[in-house]
Amino acid sequence: xxxxxxxxxxxxxxxxxxxxxxxxxxxxxxxxxxxxxxxxxxxxxxxxxxxxxxxxxxxxxxxxxxxxxxxxxxxxxxxxxxxxxxxxxxxxxxxxxxxxxxxxxxxxxxxxxxxxxxxxxxxxxxxxxxxxxxxxxxxxxxxxxxxxxxxxxxxxxxxxxxxxxxxxxxxxxxxxxxxxxxxxxxxxxxxxxxxxxxxxxxxxxxxxxxxxxxxxxxxxxxxxxxxxxxxxxxxxxxxxxxxxxxxxxxxxxxxxxxxxxxxxxxxxxxxxxxxxxxxxxxxxxxxxxxxxxxxxxxxxxxxxxxxxxxxxxxxxxxxxxxxxxxxxxxxxxxxxxxxxxxxxxxxxxxxxxxxxxxxxxxxxxxxxxxxxxxxxxxxxxxxxxxxxxxxxxxxxxxxxxxxxxxxxxxxxxxxxxxxxxxxxxxxxxxxxxxxxxxxxxxxxxxxxxxxxxxxxxxxxxxxxxxxxxxxxxxxxxxxxxxxxxxxxxxxxxxxxxxxxxxxxxxxxxxxxxxxxxxxxxxxxxxxxxxxxxxxxxxxxxxxxxxxxxxxxxxxxxxxxxxxxxxxxxxxxxxxxxxxxxxxxxxxxxxxxxxxxxxxxxxxxxxxxxxxxxxxxxx
Amino acid sequence: xxxxxxxxxxxxxxxxxxxxxxxxxxxxxxxxxxxxxxxxxxxxxxxxxxxxxxxxxxxxxxxxxxxxxxxxxxxxxxxxxxxxxxxxxxxxxxxxxxxxxxxxxxxxxxxxxxxxxxxxxxxxxxxxxxxxxxxxxxxxxxxxxxxxxxxxxxxxxxxxxxxxxxxxxxxxxxxxxxxxxx
Lengths: 618, 182
Ligand SMILES: Cc1ncc(C[n+]2csc(CCOP(=O)(O)OP(=O)(O)O)c2C)c(N)n1
What we know:
Distance between the termini of chain A: 41 Å
Bound molecules: thiamine diphosphate
Largest sheet of chain B: 5 strands, antiparallel
Number of domains of chain B: 2
Number of helices of chain B: 4
Oligomer: heterodimer
Strand content of chain A: 15-25%
Shape of chain B: elongated
CATH architecture of the largest domain in chain A: 3-Layer(aba) Sandwich
Distance between the termini of chain B: 23 Å
CATH superfamily of the largest domain in chain B: ACT domain
Order of helices and strands of chain B: EHEEHEEHEEHEEE
Helix content of chain B: 25-40%
Structural class of chain A: alpha/beta
CATH topology of the largest domain in chain A: Rossmann fold
Strand order of the largest sheet of chain A: 5-4-6-7-9-8
């Protein structure tokens, strides 16, 4: 396999730099101290400077502040008491949000990170605190979300003795972190924190866990060691060589049936504008994945809508008939490709991704480029602009037939929404939500049918407007993630669209939103079922509805009221607009229980593992 | 296909688990694994012998290279290389004739006798896989009590120019920056 690959880029070989790596934690800490010295008397920042010896817990909290954390989500326990003690002293500089379950803390930090691109932070105790956080860490890992999760640990001398609330957090989280640390020496702590933030955010982002034994947080550090890390994990690939960019540019200009298949990499690297420029110059069609939604405006004339299992007919047909597939910031997920052998089988494939291990992981591309999406697209745009107008026009002319075909597909199978007098259809709920929020709300979803309807019926305008658990498909993600997103974007409307099933997995965080006056809007798409599972049972298991009935559920309006939130319910179509309008206008937490038709299905659907052309349309 | 991988990793607790985890996560068996220090302080070289088709090995190497504390990950199998393993063998030697016969084998294989009692001997042998396997095979007739093998270490031959970047078998993911599949 490898021997067939001819490495074009000779000079750009990266061997990571080795040797001692200096984060110069002390330098930065001194800066931080001079900045914080202006603080108020009762808090830690003003009492002292960073030069004096301090205990681990203080180094940790100062490290967070130094790395730009002003909000952290967590829940205390024995192993992190010293840290919470310092958080109390530093409460003017860093706000801690007390969640009611650690899964909520990590999802909230993720929501914050997904809405901003900044590193989210969470703090949990040892043992059960750490195990509760694991679902969130795995969710972030699958979607490449930058997080720093600090977990308490039992004191170093008792590690390995089955001490109270001891669990091997380092070992448990190994396969779901970008990197992790077990802090063994207080002198390393400052540099570890700096490096953790660097690793979480650089290259392909991801979660980093710092496991901190309790005794480390109590020890006084006389002199920090900054030169402890032995490799500089610089994930930024070198700029691509001209030759490969020229090759790609040639292919793009000359393709008769090109299609851009774009994913989360566009959102992460902030490449929307560059993508727009490239496809406008080419007049080439674009289809985003679930994670790429918003990276290219859904309503744009070059957009074919979402690709994959529940994507549009045009996008899926387009990929199967394309002669050139330009895959940018994607990983050929099975929810996109269906049957691999027939996926894009007529196309030459160009794969651009920042993660070398994504290249050829499931589908061997013909041309590959390891690069972040933004710089690759920027340079391709420049190349295109330098080509003669005549060549570009000739290319566009070649694609007229292609566009006729694509338009016909787009027109033949639009996303369908039924309307009735008696029942609210779920798709209609999203359409109304779109209308009332004027298409600019940040939509955070849980996992299930409602997630797919939100993806299909809310045309997104910009990156980070759409927040969802794609890779892991974590039920319970929506509500706490929306809380984090709302905190990150206080001026924007943030709506958590959740199912009645997933809502019940993390609804305890409503009280967190109430406590901190986070004006969260929760829209429950209440179909009385674990809807997505019911749909599969209906379609692929002869309607044997095994354990999906949620008709026995709490009264969500009363539940909202019990939490001190506004609870509203719509049961018939005529009530829908009013409930949404009132609920969204409320200056506080709203829970909107929208009772929708029970057995509506998500269409189109490509049955798992099948050829994308075998789409079931209704 | 049998592959010998060579990975340069920081000598820190837990880093080896990260590498091993990449294999177990894919259900791949590690035949042998050795780790030792290098000339550079703080760095270890880990040699892993595993079965797997090329595309999977390439994938694992790229994932290894992605780890924050891994500096280099490559397959040494494709280039001329030297591979060695050491074995300590506890074998029965009950009669003078047996002892003499074993001593002959030791000489032929350039092994060593490192311990002896009235009815047993402990031998030390090193070499490539075939040699060590064969030596142990020939000793079987005397009855083996225990065999401890180190696993392989490997290094590319001087004739194999590992420094020129266009050598396609440089499988460190970090080296394959852009490629056209021809
Ligand atoms: C934590 C978790 N458990 C189970 C699943 C499997 N699962 C996927 S969708 C779904 C049903 C979701 O039901 P609901 O939240 O009511 O949303 P709906 O599909 O009805 O919109 C389930 C159980 C999952 N994704 N996550």
